[in-house]
Design goal:
The chain is α/β, with parallel strands linked by helices. It has one domain: 2,3-Dihydroxybiphenyl 1,2-Dioxygenase, domain 1 (Roll). About 20% of the residues lie in helices and about 35% in strands. The strands form two sheets. It has a four-stranded mixed sheet. It has a four-stranded mixed sheet with strand order 5-8-7-6, with no helix packed on it. The radius of gyration is 15 Å and the shape is globular. The protein starts with 7 loop residues before the first strand and ends with a strand.
Amino acid sequence: MTTPDELASVRYIVDDVAAAVHFYTTHLGFTLHTNPAPAFADVVRGPLRLLLSGPASSGARATPDDATAPGRNRIHLIVDDLDTEIDQLRAAGLSFRSDVIAGPGGRQILLTDPAGNLIELFEPAPR
């Protein structure tokens, strides 16, 4: 098991590794951790290491055939100003999978990466 000071990793199955790397590094502040290969790359933001596994990767091949659509799971990225983030991402040509939802803990919106995996942008409520 990893130690508490190591990166936490999440695997996303993608159909185009290069497009996924571009999306996460250009629009969401991730940095490339390994050189992208046709089958796999990983990107990092803070303590999160996002494993981007293409169709030829061992991670994608281990996925059952009936699990082809993204689930309801998503990575959760905290932002300081949700409205500014939305404006910047829309200006870059990205679209969202939900409207802004407000609750007692803050406001959030969902977008998808090029493969359809969900990303939640979350602005905590003022304390």
